[in-house]
Amino acid sequence: MSLRANLRWLGVLTLLGVPLPSIVVLYFFEKQSLAQIFQSDNIQAINLLLGLATGILCAILIYWATRHPVFKNLPLKVEEMILEAGLKPVDAVFLSFAAGFGEELLFRTGVQYYLGVIPTSIVFVAIHGYFSIKNPKMSLYGLLVLPFILILGFGFIHFGLWFSIAAHFSYDLLLFLLIIYRSRDHEFEF
Length: 190
Fold this sequence. Notes:
The chain is mainly α. 74% of the residues lie in helices and 0% in strands.
């Protein structure tokens, strides 16, 4: 099976499997309905648009910041996988949605419910491998990403789950598309 196919399956797992622990715990132990967990009564266009805009703005700022020489030769595993797999824009859309939906359900509705915003955000960045004792540049990148993850956490409190999903989706999508575009020997500048 190709790396591209494996990444698609990983996307399916992220979309359907990653949120399961939160759904199970909240449903059976916290007695929340599925409508409450998914905040189906709080899907508002303004929150979705605000989330999309927030994700795009943060992606642009982080992309721009990582052009600084201090980040030169920083190996980002996600970027390497995207390039090696030869992902297409349609893959970027699917994987971005899968990550936004699956991870936000797990972290915002589940982990954050018990730990709060700041610890959950730190755990989120750490699980993605962006804090490293062996690689200070990677930790610096983690500190660069952390404010965006904090925005997802506080945005969840103020605007709801779908704000966080939309922000995560648009952030990942823009970065995926920039990586794909750059791989075609173009440099994208803002």
